[in-house]
Recover the amino acids of this structure.
């Protein structure tokens, strides 16, 4: 017998000693380990205490017959499948069906022919071989799935921490400057995202506002987002790409210069396949004037004190995509009660259940409906309405925005 055989241990069950010896002799010549039992009850007790690969059992036996023994054998807890051959003189279709229903795998006619016995056992060995192979593959798959789950759990914990770190890039979600206030919205669609919003004070009179959307999603986009956050940091003005040193302090660059400098930095120094869209604005607290650059980002919206909504800009090329791209400044005057909203395409391109995007008409409608709200409460209401527009589905893209509300100079 091959050491790799699927059948090693065989149990022969028959109330006739002569019949058992005949079958056992044939099986021993085939190289199997063979045990005997003179009744179904004795055979069941043997199976409880010893592993068995193949059973050759007579059908008609006093006490527990072959069918009853087969059902009891199938009910035993086992790590692997056991092949069951019934010895019978019955050949009627309904009798064969009864045997199959009881759990028998094959039948062997009495008196037993050694050649037919060898063929039936060989068929069982093929089936058990495939079953053992499948069991081993399932075991390996289970082991690999557990390893993958462990890795996934570790990655999930890391991503949760990364999300906390990314959210910490936007520490202040609201700031009151007296003449105006700024509110920020940042909601990644996954653990981490590629959107970034923020602000910093250029000097006592001017405030820089920015909204960034890095291409793609996930860890790669989040890493570049973190790098971009450092380029707009208020804590390190010498590293801030929107500022240039002027005497003992710093002066703001024109928004178009900021987009140009960031474009060259991504293409010439960072050497990344990622690109981003940008809206950078410089807001004047004294006059309400806002100068901004639109680099592939959705058009910013201005909502006047009366509730009317206007959209600014002409689009512009994304940053980090085209060498030598030209960017242009756009300016708008805000009067007391007016507000400027910078928003990501997670808002403008949010689809409804039919796939229709919200678009600028939808944004104007939502801003009009929530005209009486301000600050973070406005963003909360917009998110509620956006969720309803999407049919209650999760947002497919990161959602972010900057709200600049101008009240006019204070005495």
């Amino acid at each position: 017998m091959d050491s790799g055989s699927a059948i090693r241990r065989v149990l022969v069950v028959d109330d006739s000693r002569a019949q058992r010896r005949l079958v056992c002799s044939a099986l021993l010549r085939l190289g199997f380990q063979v045990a005997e039992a003179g009744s179904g009850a004795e055979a069941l007790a043997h199976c409880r205490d010893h592993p068995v690969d193949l059973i050759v059992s007579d059908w008609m036996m006093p006490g527990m017959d072959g069918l009853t023994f087969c059902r009891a054998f199938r009910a035993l807890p086992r790590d692997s499948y056991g092949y069951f051959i019934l010895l019978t003189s019955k050949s009627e279709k309904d009798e064969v069906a009864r045997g199959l229903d009881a759990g028998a795998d094959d039948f062997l006619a009495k008196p037993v022919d050694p050649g037919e016995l060898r063929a039936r056992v060989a068929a069982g060995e093929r089936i058990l071989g495939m079953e053992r192979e499948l069991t081993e593959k399932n075991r390996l798959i289970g082991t690999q799935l557990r390893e993958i789950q462990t890795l996934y759990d570790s990655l999930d914990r890391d991503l949760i921490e990364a999300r906390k770190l990314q959210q910490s890039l936007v520490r202040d979600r609201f700031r009151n400057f007296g003449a105006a206030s700024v509110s920020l919205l940042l909601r990644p669609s996954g653990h981490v995202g590629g959107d970034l919003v923020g602000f910093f004070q250029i000097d006592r009179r001017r405030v820089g506002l920015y909204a960034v959307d890095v291409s793609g999603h996930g860890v790669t986009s989040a890493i570049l987002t973190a790098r971009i956050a450092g380029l707009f940091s208020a804590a390190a003005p010498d590293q801030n790409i929107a500022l240039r040193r002027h005497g003992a302090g710093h002066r703001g660059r024109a928004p178009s210069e900021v987009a140009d400098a960031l474009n060259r930095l991504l293409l010439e120094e960072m050497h990344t396949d990622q690109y981003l869209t940008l809206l950078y604005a410089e807001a004047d607290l004294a006059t309400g004037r806002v100068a901004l650059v639109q680099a592939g980002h959705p058009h910013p919206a201005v909502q006047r004190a009366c509730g009317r909504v206007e959209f600014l800009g002409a689009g512009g090329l994304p940053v980090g995509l085209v060498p030598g791209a030209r960017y242009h400044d756009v300016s708008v005057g805000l009067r007391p009660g007016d507000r400027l909203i910078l928003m990501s395409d997670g808002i403008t391109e949010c689809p409804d259940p039919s796939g229709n995007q919200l678009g600028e008409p939808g944004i104007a409608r939502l801003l009009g409906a929530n005209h009486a709200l301000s600050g973070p409460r406005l963003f909360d209401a917009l998110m509620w309405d956006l969720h309803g527009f999407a049919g209650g589905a999760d947002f497919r893209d990161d959602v972010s925005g900057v709200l600049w509300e101008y009240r006019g100079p204070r005495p």
